[in-house]
Amino acid sequence: MSTLQVLRTLLFYLLLSSSSFFWCILSVFVAPFLPFRARYRFVIQNWCRSAVWLARVVVGIRYDIQGLEHLPARPCVILAKHQSTWETFFLSGLFEPLSQVVKRELLFVPFFGWAMAMLRPIAIDRANPKAALKQLAKQGNECLAKGAWVLVFPEGTRVPMGKIGKFSRGGAALAVNAGVPVLPIAHDAGRFWPKEGWAKYPGTIRVVIGPAMQAEGQGPRAIAELNDRAFRWIEQTQRELGALDAEGYVEERSSASV
Q: What's the pTM?
């Protein structure tokens, strides 16, 4: 990475962290007085969009999105590839309101966690996988019923560029039980915003939204089939993006992957 890019990356982190600090403080005092949808836009959507904008302007990370025509009219379960932090910002800015699975410990972070807690996240205990799955089923269904999208990273953790992890069935199970489709999303954000290290590289992230997938029936078999179908679509699309190696499978997942 060139000296100029190093300086641009450092500037990006400085601006992102300072904006996060001040925005979270402001949100703690303003958000409680807003209805939920306006609260989401104020606390999360606007700030996440500013983070994506900073990445574009400061470090040169742009994006191209395909498949917006596949967005269903009503919120559903989003199953997205997880490679970096960028897609968390991007998807939180694209869909609103959106609830996502987060580590419970994040809610205890001063200001940041307090602001996040007001947005109905599905905060799981990673040390208790069975309880986490039950929590996703219960809270996820409540969020969908109230008109919120539910974002699930089925690999359970960020997986390095070129690899793909086994999909947990939690997101598919939520969709089947709630009677909504899953929306698969593939991308190559890890090429420019890697999982490891602090380096950021200029370029254009390609995001592909697939057709919404509805389960064929009910029960465990329908859940497994829907999950496998979403996995195959994301796997194939990652290959088409050049974001999956020939031997790109990994077995490691978070113990509480949902």
A: 0.90
